[in-house]
Design a protein that fits this description.
By secondary structure, the chain is an alpha+beta fold. The chain folds into 2 domains: 2-111, Ribosome hibernation promotion factor-like (Double Stranded RNA Binding Domain), CATH 3.30.160.100; 140-187, Sigma 54 modulation/S30EA ribosomal protein, C-terminal domain (SHC Adaptor Protein, 2-Layer Sandwich), CATH 3.30.505. It is 30% helix and 30% strand. The strands form 3 sheets. Strands 1-2-3-4 form a 4-stranded mixed β-sheet. The chain has a 4-stranded mixed β-sheet with strand order 7-8-9-10, with helices on one face. A two-stranded antiparallel sheet has the order 5-6. Helix 1 packs parallel to helix 2 and helix 2 (74-100) runs antiparallel to helix 4 (145-155). The N and C termini lie far apart (40 Å). Residues 112-127 have low confidence and may be disordered. One of its GO terms (cellular component) is cytosolic small ribosomal subunit.
Length: 187
């Protein structure tokens, strides 16, 4: 079951907008097992040029779904973003299904969906030059390089930290300037 946390900048989240978002995003629930709980964080922005930006992120235990869309029509932007999220789920589910067919399977994977928490860091005046403006804590899931690259791309990040399934070491994959990928292995 999805809960919603909606926020608007320069726009009031009316009941009609809320209902449209909930109706569209609830279609994604068919990809999850029963009892799966997650919170969909929805940010709506309206710019001076009347263009809207819709961001939806759904953090779960083993996967974070995230997409954003800019459009002149808010409702069309919502429809496009739900399509993006659905493509992400299908792509990831296909990859995971292929990889875990003999192990625990996708159903067990999506059954353990859980909400992750972000925690902010305190900033003092003396620490401006090297201040940490955001701290995240998350559980490292054992996976291989290919799955880590997939997660990184789905999140839209330039790097991703993961536990290597074979060596049990903490590794980092990153996107290089030439568009290829790099791997940092720790000892």
């Amino acid at each position: 079951m999805l809960d919603f946390n909606m926020r608007g900048e320069n726009i009031e989240v009316t009941p009609a907008i809320r209902e449209h978002i909930e109706k569209k995003v609830h279609k994604l629930e068919r990809y999850f097992s029963e009892g799966a709980n997650a919170t969909a964080h929805v940010n709506l922005k309206v710019y001076n040029d009347k263009q809207t930006k819709v961001e939806i992120s759904i953090p779960m235990k083993n996967l974070t779904l995230r997409a954003e869309e800019r459009h002149t029509d808010l409702y069309a932007g919502i429809d496009l973003i739900v399509d993006k999220l659905e493509r992400q789920i299908r792509k990831y589910k296909t990859k995971v299904n292929r990889k875990f067919r003999e192990h625990e399977g996708v159903a067990a994977f999506f059954a353990s969906v859980n909400r992750s928490e972000d925690k902010g860091a305190d900033i003092t005046e003396d620490d401006k030059e090297f201040s940490v403006v955001r701290t995240k804590q998350f559980e490292l899931k054992p996976m291989d390089q290919e799955e880590a690259i997939l997660q990184m791309n789905m999140l839209g990040h330039n790097f991703f930290v993961f536990t290597d399934g074979e060596s049990d070491g903490t590794n980092i994959v990153y996107k290089r300037r030439d568009g290829k990928y790099g791997l940092i292995e720790t000892n």
